[in-house]
Specification:
Elements (H helix, E strand, L loop, with lengths): L2 E5 L3 H13 L4 E5 L2 H10 L3 E6 L7 H8 L3 E7 L1 H4 L7 E5 L4 H18 L5 H18 L3 H14 L4 H15 L2
Parallel strand pairs: 1-2, 1-3, 3-4, 4-5
Length: 178
């Protein structure tokens, strides 16, 4: 199941959404109040559903789609005037005022969509990705989430699967060590 992340400035609203998620059978992975804490949570999570509440000054949902791609489904709940500025079709928008039932339905829909879209790596592919992350962590002194994010970004930049890019890193490392 995708990790649920709630992002928003208002503690009251975050708590309301967390209670709604709990009553619907979901647990909250993290609550974030800034763009940096949100990006950190998304980097640490392999797959997420983000409930983005209102506005966060240093982070826009469209930027998150660009940076995290299919790893995250975004439900943006805000005033209609704010939502009008979003041009990304990947961001699901829900105008306020709304009901808890509508929010719960939207989250369930995004969870189902997320399950269908998330690529599932086979054992061999997963092993390649893990080996490449270890190489990057040693070479560049990165944490595991940083290495994962770098690997993912480079694969996306080269328009290839993450496992393919991981294999190229492993091959380069083997050639260096000969």
């Amino acid at each position: 199941m995708a990790r649920m992340i709630i992002a928003g400035i208002s503690e009251t609203t975050r708590d309301q959404i967390a209670r709604l998620l709990a009553s619907s059978g979901y647990s909250v992975y993290r609550c974030c109040t800034s763009g940096s804490s949100l990006r950190r949570a998304l980097s640490e999570s392999e797959d997420s559903i983000l409930i983005y509440l209102g506005q966060i000054p240093d982070c826009k949902p469209e930027e998150l789609v660009w940076d995290y791609g299919e790893r995250v489904q975004i439900l943006w709940i805000a005033k209609p005037a704010i939502l009008e500025n979003c041009e990304s079709p990947e961001v699901f928008r829900l105008p306020v005022p709304t009901t808890g039932q509508t929010i719960a339905g939207a989250i369930e829909m995004l969870n189902q969509l997320h399950r269908r879209q998330m690529p599932r790596r086979a054992g061999a592919e997963k092993e390649l990705v893990e080996q490449a992350k270890e190489i990057l962590m040693k070479q560049l002194h990165l944490t595991e989430p940083e290495a994962h994010h770098l690997l993912q970004k480079q694969a996306m930049d080269h328009s290839i699967k993450m496992a393919e890019y991981a294999a190229s890193i492993i091959q380069e490392e083997k050639q260096k060590n000969r």
